[in-house]
Amino acid sequence: MASADAVPVLLGACLIVAAAVFALLPLLRPARASAVGMVVAPDAAVDRFQLYRNILELEFDYETGKLSAEDYAALSGELLGQAADQLREVRGRLDGIDDAIEREIAAARTAFASARGAPSSSAASGQPDVAR
Considering the entire predicted model, what is its pTM? Predict the structure, then answer.
């Protein structure tokens, strides 16, 4: 009868050990680089498209009245400058960068407007609607 009483105790002990290992395993693994705050350089195209999304969000905030015209002009100018710098790094030349940025922003603006379901007046013209 002693062996019959030992089976539940052994099963309980195994379950406790398994639960402890499961709970402590993340603490025992080596930390990943992103978990300790090391920044990995993003792909230039991904970063540039994030800038475009930020520009589109600025346009949306301006259209909804969350930003004044002065704030919109300053912030969008800064973001467009960053996008130009990144595009210049990627392409390695200065000619046609402004046109390329405007084409890419117009395409992103059209995609953003169609995703929202309502085309904006600035999306149709390809220019931001700054003057009101």
Answer: 0.40
